[in-house]
Amino acid sequence: AALARPRVAHAHTAHGALEHPEPREGITAELVLPAEALGKFNDRPKIAKAYASARANPAIFDGIACACSCGGKKGEHRSLLSCYESMQPTGCGACQEEAELVVKLIDEGKSLAEIRAAVDKKFD
């Protein structure tokens, strides 16, 4: 029998590696904030591009643990996608830095497994 993966994305293993959640079946970007909701932050290219990529690639963002722990302490954010369903990344450098790496790798055509490995390497 397969063991269920943890639902909390920010949990760390004994070795410190992130435990990436599996993307939820049928996940969409419907809760990712639209550009118009970002207000002045829409003028910051790195932030605007990260939100746009989360909207375009919800399954990838949902399969990546957020390394910042902003939402993880209370278990509020199961994945990087969850962060981009709020304004949190507009003020969180860690969310922005992780998303920048994820966006770069998506643009390079990397798989979810390859993206997870790169995130682990950078944020472990």
Quick summary of this structure?
With 124 residues, the chain is mainly alpha-helical. It contains five helices and no strands.
The oligomeric state is single chain
Low-confidence regions: 1-15
* Rg calculated over all Cα atoms: 14 Å
Order of helices and strands: HHHHH
User: Shape, please?
Assistant: globular
Overall pLDDT, averaged?
A: 84
Estimated structural class: mainly alpha
Helical proportion? 25-40%
Please summarize the sheet with the most strands: none
Count of separate DSSP helical elements: 5
Please tally the β strands and state the result.
0
Strand content: under 5%
Give the N-to-C terminal Cα separation: 29 Å
Structure description:
The structure is a single chain. The protein starts with 44 loop residues before the first helix and ends with a helix. It is mainly alpha-helical and 124 residues long. It contains five helices and no strands. It is globular. It has helices spanning 45-56, 58-62, 80-83, 93-107, 112-123. Helix content is 39%, strand content 0%. Mean pLDDT is 84; it is low at 1-15.
